[in-house]
Structure formats: C-alpha cells, structure tokens
Amino acid sequence: MAKRALKTAAVVMLTWGVPLSVSAQTTATPIDASVQADQADVPISRDIFGQFAEMLGEGVYGGIWVGKNSKIPNVRGIRSDVVNALRALKVPVVRWPGGCFADEYNWRNGVGPADKRRATVNAMWGKTIEPNTFGTDEFMDFVEQIGSEAYISVNVGSGTPQQAAEWLEYMTADKASALGAERAANGHKGPYRVKYLGLGNESWGCGGSMSAEAYIDRMKLFSHFSHNYNPDQAGRALADVLNAMSQGKFTLALLEPLPNEMRRVAVGPDAAKTEYTEAVMKAWSLKQPMTWGIEGLSLHFYSMGGGHPFGFAATDFGEKEYATLLKETLRMDDIIATHSAIMDKYDPEKKVALVVDEWGAWLKPMPGTREIFFKQQNSLRDAILASLNLNVFAKHSDRVRMANIAQMVNVIQSMILTKDSDMVLTPTYHIYKMYVPFQDAQFIPVTYDAGSYTFGGVTLPQVDILAARATDGRVWMALTNIDPNRSASVNAKIAGMAVNSATGEVLTADRVDAVNTFGAKAAVAPAPYRANASNGSLILELPPKSVTVVSIQ
Ligand code: AHR
User: Fold this and answer.
1) pTM for the whole thing?
2) For residue 365, what is the DSSP state?
3) Coil, strand, or helix at residue 240?
4) Probe target for ligand 1 pocket from 96, 302, 358, with the most ligand atoms within 8 Å of CB
5) Which of 50, 300, 523, 534 is the most exposed place for a label (fewest CB within 10 A)?
6) Mean pLDDT for the chain overall
7) Rounded average pLDDT over 247-272
8) What are phi and psi of 393, to 5 degrees?
9) What pLDDT, on a 0 to 100 scale, did the predictor assign at position 28?
10) Helix (H, G, I), strand (E, B), or coil: what is residue 342?
11) Ligand 1 contact, 104 CB (< 6 A)
C-alpha cells in the first residue's frame, strides 16, 4: 500500500465540531476497506448490548434505588434521571442480582411489604447490611421502566433447586397458584417475563469452588426443576410432544425452544480456561431429551491490566498503560474463538450460545470510596475498550448471542456515575448510545488491512471496523482508531451501493485518560461527524484515539 501523509488540518475540514487538539499529526497509510454490504446475513443479537446490575456497593442502592420517600425524583423508589438516561440506550437485557451475590441470595427476603423485609448481611461485598428493599418486584419494575428484559441468576451455590423453582414460580405463575397470588398481592397481577435464567455464577470460584463435574450434577437439577409458567414463555407442553410421538409425527425440532421461551445459561469458563467449557458442553451433547437443558454457556473475562482488579489506574495513566490495557482487552477475540471451537465439537449447529455475561475494564477505585464497592472512573480509553469488545462480540455473532457489561451504574465499567442527586454519563455510556443501530442488525463482513500502532513494545492494530445493515435497511459502520497520536484515513468501498456521504458521531477527547466528572460532564462527549465520497469510495478521516459511528447515504 502506498504511504500517504495527511495533515491534521485536512481531518478538521472533514469533520464537524470535533474538538481536535491534535495538531501536526499525520495519518499512517490510508486503509482500503471493502464493505461486503451484499453479504449481510448473520444477525447481531441486540442482547450483546446487555448490562449487569449486582447488589454491590452503590450499583443498586444510590445508583438505581433511592426509595419512595427520597427527595431525588423517582418513580416508586427508582431514580428517574438514571431511568431516562438508560432508556436512551435501549438496554436489551439486565442481569441481576449477581454476580457472586446471586449464590448467597434468598429471594424470599426481598418480597412483600417493605417494612416487613428482613435485613441481611451482604457477605460477599463488604459485609454491608442488605436491607432487601430492592427485591424481585422492584427489579422487575426497574426493567420495565427502562424498557428492558430480565436475566435472573438463581442461587446454585448456597440455595436449593426448590428455592429456585419457587422463585421462578413467584415471577411467572398465574395467580391461581399460591406463589402467583402472592405476587399479585404484592402488586403485579400478571406474570413477569424472565428472558434468561442464569444457573449459578462462577461456580469454579465465588459460586462454590466446584469442579466442573460437581457443578454439572448440581446444575442439572436447577435446569430441570425451574419452570417458567408465563404462557408467553412456557414452551411446548409435554402432552403435545407425547401426542406427536404417538401419532408418528415426532421430529427433533419439537425439542427445540420456541422463540419466546426462556433461555437457561450455565456457568462456563473463567477467561481462557477450558475445563468448564469441555465438561458442560460434553454433558449437554450426551443428555437425554426432555431431561435437563441449557441454551447458553457463560464466559467471564475482565480487562485488568496487572492481572488483578486494582492493577491499573482509571485516571492519570500514561500511554504504556493505555496500550497494555487495550492489548489485553483484544484477547477477548482469541478467548471467544477458543471456547467457540470447543463448543463446535459438541454443538456444530450452534444451538448453545456463548454468553459473555461479565466483561469490562476493572481498575483502581475512586479515591475516598470503599475498595470493595468497585466505584471507578471511566475514561476515553475505556470507551475505546468497549467499542473493541462490542466489535468482537458482533464478529462472533454466530455463537455470541448475549453479553453483559460489568456493571450498569457506579460499579466497575459503568454507564453512569451518581453522587446524591447528581448523575454523570461516562464515555462508555456514549459508546452504547452510538451503537444502538447495531442492535439486531445483520453483520456485514469487512476486509481491510488494520495497520498497526506500537508503544513501549506493545503492538496493536491501528483501526478496527464493524459494519452492519440495520433493521431499517441502512448500512452502519463503527470505526475505532486506537492510535492516540496519528489520525487514520479509511477509504471504504461499499459493495452494491452508490455512496455519497456518511453521517453520524465521533467520540474523542484531547487525552486518552479524559473523563467526565460532576464538574465537567461533557469532557468526553460525541460530536457530529460527516464524511464524503470520492470516486465511489467513502473517505473517512478518523481522529487519533476515537470511535466514529456513521450511517451511509
Ligand atoms: O462484577 C463483580 C464480580 O466479578 C462478580 O460478582 C463476579 O461474578 C465476578 O468475579
């Protein structure tokens, strides 16, 4: 490829209102990208843009729940500023109540009149008092207020299959059953929807330190005995399957879950470790029909820099930490490929989804906060990190059909930080908003030479590109320029389309460690972006350290 140097001034002319303070930097070789818009065929599940809200620190108390009598504007105790901000993200699914918390949670403590609820100890997260004022009905109310779906993790560690079955009955049964009647008396007449059911959490660690075999034996009971009774989600009646058999009309398709049916997610691998993946998938492939089942396998992988949660700073870091953390996050691609290959052995038809239900940048907490609450700042680097992960998930859409960033509010890589009645949107929030058009879009293959960026012996691709055809038929591209010093120029040819221009937004700032604070809420905020076509190709000039999302006209 011929080298071409473009002055930053040219970049400025081609963008609108982007605060570029990147004078005299030059692009690397222009990148030719071929966007196969005529080959859009794998759906990008909207659920890869899912989130996770654990009963941990200020994640729920303070961040979501302020109580009905709070001066902070709220609807039934749930803060309205946070709800309104999250609604704009079209959050598809929320995982709750944990995390490690889930394997110690007794749902019974969190239902019924607020003044009768027992206070318990949150043994996992700081031994704080858990007032149980935010329980099942409050969570479902929250999910409804933000227009999302529920992913409930049941207690496989210290709980029993019966407790899990009764919890699901409480949430989904008709009021003719005692538990359905109890829910109705608590204010919700009809059954709730539970889109996903998590069968434990990190059972190789905080969920009970079980071997894969021990976990599988236990998980089968939870899978088999937890029934969703919501008529919209219940699946095929056993009698229908038996009838089909007796009439010689049985086909294996009758054992497949219906589109609306609840999906069960088993505990799977810890990052690159394959023990759980092998064992759970092997057990699944050998199972007898109509016994137990799973439709998902969970994967947890955090970007932590030093190999443990507080290894890297969230603010005031240098280029070495920037490059190192992003290099680590790109391991996600290989980790998914490794587990997908094992899953393919046992499940070539890809019936079981890989569910990345915990991921994100886990960094040093904010000064003055309790370490165990994991309240951390969130920088432009973390927004770039989020875009890289979302692109990886989308590229693996044939297998990855849900992902949940950790976590939603005030915990780890959050969307929102709150302080009393105030709220600030993080750079990661903006990425999620910019990526909304990719929800349920069709993945479009893109071929390009990504170039490279090297710092301190760490080499990364310079550019990462995602393309998709949205549900409204429009072609969208997300382009991440990792290089913090050089802009990039992408010449994109879109197959089967005459292109004129592309418009959208770009997220960048003057520093990779730029953050939004309560004093400066828009230090990292998207700006309008426009690119034009020349000789049938779109010329997209990408500022250093930026994420650009455009629709193509
Ligand atoms: O997200 C915080 C914790 O990290 C979760 O509770 C646990 O599953 C993981 O180790």
Assistant:
1) 0.94
2) P
3) helix
4) 358
5) 534
6) 93
7) 91
8) -60, -45
9) 58
10) helix
11) no
